[in-house]
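From the shared-data thread, chain only:
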Amino acid sequence: MNLASRAHRGRVLASCALGLVAISALLLGLWRPWAPLPEAAPVGAGDAAMVVEPAPLALPEHPVVLVFGDSWTYGSAAAPFTHGYAYLLGGLLNGESVVKGVRGSGYLKPGLDGPAFGERIAALNPGLAPDLVIIQGSINDRLQGEAGYREAVTAAWDALAGLYPDAAIVVLGPAPHELPVGDGTARIDMDLGELAAARGWWYISPIEREWITPENYLDVIDVDLGRKHPSTAGHQYLASKVAEALSEFGGEPAAAPVASETDPEQ
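Structure, as tokens:
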């Protein structure tokens, strides 16, 4: 082999060696055996909303029903206020109501007669042991904005579930005090519905069920002295609609409306 051929062969071998080094470096960079393997994405990551099928609602023959909420639960505009829907509901379920309603309160907004939902839940009697908890509302957060709202709801519901671990919990969403339904109220309804579905809790949406429509609005809502709260007849109507919804979840059919002894929160 002459000198020119040897030189050419050397250049070819050198090029091949450099190519192998480059390929090895690339593969090593991609493999990186010393680096931790990437973790798998959690199940459900990227999903719009998680849904857990609620268990059928099973109540004892004479249930104790804790109804927690805002002015609608308080009985505003009912005459007397103990004829509000929350007071009637226990009788409709052949049990008794314990009513905890604070006017003007919400998950973010403190009320006229007490703090926001989270602080109020922390003050509930742990020895009450209700069979069913209805947590209602609230339209009072409609002007508070969405920042921190879901976090406040989650914290309040965690506390409620921890306080009464043996109780069935049903969320009663906001009912419109005026029509058409405002954007803030619609957002709250959507947020609460999604959060309840993720927990496997039953959710009642008066908006989706169209309990209050242009046709019955003035029959349900007292727009004068009641300042857009349900009238006495409106509260009775709402109590029957809530009882009807509960019966769909596996509870007993509603009985005739009867007022219950309660512990109203003033």
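The first strand starts at residue 64 and ends at 69.
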